[in-house]
What we know:
The protein is mainly α and 183 residues long.
Amino acid sequence: MTIVSRKGASRSLDHVERFTCFVMVVAMALLVVGVNFQVVARYLLCYSPEWAGAVVQLLSWSQEAVQYAFVWMIYLGAGVGVRRGLHLRINLLDGLLSERGRRWMTILVDSACLVVAAVFVVAGSVVAWRTRLHVSPAMGLSMAWVYLVFPLSGAGLLVFLVEAIVRGRLPGGATDALGETEP
């Protein structure tokens, strides 16, 4: 049995992060195209009543696609945010607490995030499985594909949180917007 080195695991997680960012970019592109399509279609709907039926059908389809893309982008982005040290924390408490207090706060926050991530994996898997036969109204897509984002984002959160805990970081996850550790 071989143990994966930290460097190899980090490199693998770099690939996971890049793929996640790629999916987020695709979702964002779908958002931009879908929203712009809706604006143009509504304009045409006002001035071309003969196209109304086709335009309304396309509007409902694109609106649904935009909503699902938005959900996927946000939930997958949570894991990337954790990896880059940008997850939610209260800076005010960092200044008020001692070094030991900040360490305990980091442990508390990381523990709470691990619990939430585990709930996402378990409950999200259950929801995705139970809705596999439900179909979205406009696109005809199995709702399991929509809800699959919850267990996937939970797994990403778990993996990236464990990596951050093992790798170590400043109490409170102190990093700047570029992911560089603050002095």
